[in-house]
Specification:
Elements lengths: L14 H6 L11 H23 L6 H23 L8 H24 L2 H8 L2 H12 L7 H23 L5 H25 L8 H22 L9 H28 L2 H5 L4 H13 L6 H18 L2
């Protein structure tokens, strides 16, 4: 998929490395099973911001992401130990950079969810493939952008400008909503920078599990003290909160990673990545349906331009 072959997943840039290493099983075209699994994964990934927003009154999004990262980190460490895998010492430095960027991404996401709608967060977060494509264009000769990709980037950033107006046009739209949209866009930049770090450093040769380990560790170490220092330590142990935490940690941060890694071993990464635009689409639809979020016309129009741009940039 060119510059953004791994960006279908909102939590795991580790797959950039997995997608470029030789596979034991020959990768083939998508079949009905792979298509169904990708639709399910995109639905789950689109639901994660909605889930964080839905539980925000009882559990701080920042603390929730920190806790889910800790749970997923423990599960992943156990899996790696069972497989006999261990992080390589020579990759710790670049791993720390990737982990810090990943933690910063979700620090920004957590703050954005306090200020703006979940549907806005998911659209601006998923500008990450555009920033990754621009960075890889400058760093790797094989990732140079062609005319179609430049048109896609232009469309997408025009859509971002238009979607920003939706932060002011909708009900309750004010400077807080605009700030939240800006933070979500910065989270997309951080995600793009994480991908760039993975693709252009020693992490490109690391197993996907090792790279994910760095990212989860970075998120846990950054967001847990961040939640305490900013007073976002709210966690009411209700059934609903535990259900959201279980979904975030077991399903989003762990099980979806294993499923995606399994798919990458068996199917062409470019074909899998073509589903990337479905995640923000599902996120917007679920935010409107489950959270009753009003969608301003300018935001809807801008979102469609962003999605069209992502398709053009990501198309094999």
């Amino acid at each position: 998929m060119g510059a953004v072959k791994s960006l279908a997943s909102p939590t795991v840039d580790a797959f950039s490395a997995a997608a470029t290493r030789p596979r034991v099983i020959a990768a083939g075209p998508l079949d009905a099973r792979a298509g169904g699994l990708m639709l399910l994964l995109c639905l789950l990934w689109g639901l994660q911001q909605v889930s964080l927003k839905a539980a925000a009154d009882e559990a701080s999004p920042m603390l929730m992401v920190a806790l889910r990262s800790g749970v997923a980190l423990a599960l992943l460490a156990g899996l790696m130990r069972w497989r006999g895998e261990a992080p390589q010492r020579q990759r710790w430095r670049t791993g720390a950079v990737a982990g810090a960027l990943f933690g910063m991404e979700y620090l920004l996401v957590a703050e954005a969810l306090r200020l703006t709608q979940a549907s806005h967060v998911v659209i601006f977060l998923y500008t990450a493939p555009l920033f990754a494509a621009l960075g890889l264009h400058l760093r790797l000769p094989a990732e140079r952008l062609g005319g179609r990709q430049w048109v896609g980037i232009g469309l997408a950033f025009g859509g971002v400008a238009l979607a920003f107006l939706g932060g002011l046009d909708g009900p309750g739209g004010d400077s807080r909503a605009l700030l939240g949209d800006g933070l979500a866009l910065m989270a997309g930049m951080a995600w793009g920078a994480t991908t760039l770090t993975i693709r252009c450093t020693a992490l490109a040769a690391a197993p996907a599990t090792e790279t994910l380990l760095y990212q989860l560790l970075g998120a846990f170490l950054l967001l847990l003290p961040g939640a305490w220092l900013t007073g976002q330590w709210r966690f009411e142990p209700t059934v609903a909160v535990w259900a959201h935490l279980g979904f975030q940690s077991l399903v989003v941060s762990f099980a979806s990673f294993l499923t995606w890694c399994w798919l990458l071993r068996r199917y062409l990464a470019s074909r899998l990545g073509a589903f990337a635009f479905l995640t923000p689409l599902f996120g917007v639809m679920l935010g409107a349906w489950l959270l009753n979020e009003a969608l301003a016309p300018s935001f809807v129009a801008g979102s469609l331009l962003v999605l069209a741009g992502i398709v053009l940039v990501s198309k094999p």
